[in-house]
Amino acid sequence: MTTSKRVAEKKVAKFQRNITKRGSVPETSSKKGYDFPVGPILLGFFIFVVIGSSLFQIIRTATSGGMA
């Protein structure tokens, strides 16, 4: 069985399209700089609360006389 020239050309063209498309990444999916899920103010406030809370706990433990 032989394939017609038209069918063979169609298969070759499809194969060539796959080769040229392979590895191409659309521009929209590339990263665009630094995009944080949280703002820097909210992050700073969170760090302030965590560090402040730990310092407060240390000071309270030190003034109460250690482990009781």
Description:
With 68 residues, the chain is mainly α. It has two helices and no strands. The chain has helices at 5-21, 40-63. The longest helix has 24 residues, at 40-63. It is rod-shaped and about 95 Å long. The mean pLDDT is 81.
Descriptors for this entry?
rod-shaped; 68 residues; 2 helices; mainly alpha
What is the N-to-C succession of helices and strands? Answer: HH
Shape: rod-shaped
- State Rg: 32 Å
What amount of the residues lies in strands? under 5%
Helical stretch count? 2
Chain oligomer state? single chain
Terminal-residue CA separation: 92 Å
What is the number of E strands?
Answer: 0
